[in-house]
Amino acid sequence: MKLLLKLAWRNIWRNRRRSILTILAVIFASFLSLLQRGLATGTWEVNVRNTVEMVAGYLQVQRTGYQDNPSLTKSLAYPATLRSILQQTDGVSGFAPRIQGDGLVSFRDRSSGVLLMGLDPEAEQRVSRFHRRVIEGRYLSTGAQDEVVVGTTLLTNLGARVGDTIVVLAQGYDGVLGNLKFRVVGSIRMGVQSFDAGTILMTVGAAQELLAMEGRVSVVAISIDDLNELEEVRTRLQGGIDSAPIGQTSVLTWDEVMPDLAQAMAFDRIGDYFFMVVLIVIVTFGILNTVLMSVTERFREFGVSLAVGMRPFQLVVQVLVESFYMIAIGIVTGSSLGYAINAYVKAHPIIFSGDFEDIYAQYGFLPQMVGSTELWVLGQVVAVIAVASLLSLIYPLYRVARLEPLKGIRHT
Description:
The chain is built from 16 helices and 14 strands. By secondary structure, the protein is of the alpha+beta class. The chain has two domains: 2-51 and 261-410, no CATH class; 65-247, no CATH class.
């Protein structure tokens, strides 16, 4: 066996040009596939995390039917029993009540329709990143009734600044229009156009007063310890809620709360897989052609080897090892290059500006591209390239296995 390994290694370099071209083809396929999958996975991951933590939470407790028709009338009671269940459920790292409603904000002679979000500033720090995205002024103070944090674009459109007083008008849970004055204590930028241009954050207490929702919230956003245990945590939490006298309360995952984002992610993955398939098919036929040519031009050599006592199985192993060497060199080199670039782009994301930034913002995505160093992405690409490459060897190996000594010697 040791002799076969040495012989196979030497045979690779008998025709350096062909072997190098085959190795370069595998390097190109591995590198491009891993780079593309890594960038797609990393970019989606950061956008999903940003959107989930900004809007929905990884899990969300809400009144049954709220998701189909969000309104104040389908708000959720927030008793101590529910808070106790959330605290005692394994896997839940934090939870925060939220109130969401529509309103109208005015400053001097300017006004704009907005999304009102009532938050618990302290609880939100364990669930979302709102407090990290304040770029001017400060975040909300716990218990403050007259403070708001406004999206940067909205603040500019209103012609207001941090420290100014604005008026918010909204229809409450009881159907009565209410209005309150608030002092702008900070501006926030989440990097999503719809949020930055149309959202006002206030405390839960202020939102309950404005919207007449004493003791009620729209949803409860939940963060978890491990995203891989999303369904398990959901099942435990739903079981705890069903066993308590809360009633008509559902636990939804982020993809159920934001189906458009989940569908866009799935559609993009289909495009990624199609790209990989096309690339791998091209490389597979390239490897097939190279190995088949190598085998065919050596039929006379193989015939002589068989005539002097070498078994067909040994010839098949020799050709297989030769091909394995080239495929392994290509996969290791290409994957290493792809992984290194992904690691670099993960540490130093590519930030888009100008028209590209506007395009990303229109679709609610962060204008940046991020790499991924997840081992499952590397393993997936390596496995697919390796399997496709080995499948391309079936026909050449079949030709070698069926070769007869006399026909091999006479082959020209």
